[in-house]
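pasting for the record
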Amino acid sequence: MSLLKAVIMGVIQGLTEFLPVSSSGHLALFKILFDVDTETGMLFDVLLHVGTLIAIFAVFYKDIFRMIREGFAIIGDFFCNVKIFAGNVFQGADEPYHMLISNSYRKFVMLVIVSTIPTGIIGFAAANVVEAASEILIVPGCCLILTSVLLFVSDRIADGKKMPKNVTYSNAFFIGICQGFATLPGLSRSGTTITACLFSKFKRSFAVRYSFIMSIPAVLGALVLELTDLSGVKVTTAEVGYYLAGVACAAVVGYIAIKTMLVAVREKKFTFFAVYCLVVGIVSIVGYFYAA
């Protein structure tokens, strides 16, 4: 893989991870059409997702740092409650327990954890299927058409009002399942999860925040799994440089794309992306049968 191809893939990742047009689908199409071989399986794809994680941190750093702080506070209060329980049972005390979910950020943390569970199970179980599907042109084509349908529908869903305190854990689990299936190439993760949030009556601005922030543990988990599978993979010094260039491009372009998405969801501007996905999906399917 050349530096130019790595940079182009970084730009594709940054744009399509946050714009609802499927980063995995576009990367798969680019690899197939231009015969790109990274020689490290899905590693480069996962590293490109790390670049977009950097973009998420840059845009939502206040929310993320608050959630980290409240997450540790939940753990601290849990162990305090264990101590209180022991005192109440064995020493006859009557000390009140600490409330674990005492504010909206703590609820946000728990919702993301619940969403991550089905995503992790589906992602782990389907990892080989997803990698194989990325090499067949018709799969991202069909999934892009499905993404088009989801985006078209999402613009026509009535505005919801749910913020963290109103969101149920069943809502979070459902959205996590949707994120798990969105690992298929061509099925937009952001488009799928934002649509799932809107179906669950989330407020539109919160739907975007939730969709992007909930991707953090999923991407980190995928990176850990990929890194544990690298015992036989050799990466040259030149490839390391190419990979870093791709990651940097994904981060910069991703930052711009997130800002664009915040406006697109609020103003219901998904129809353009729906038409784009439909066209690219149809072209991909036609290309598959033409090549055959």
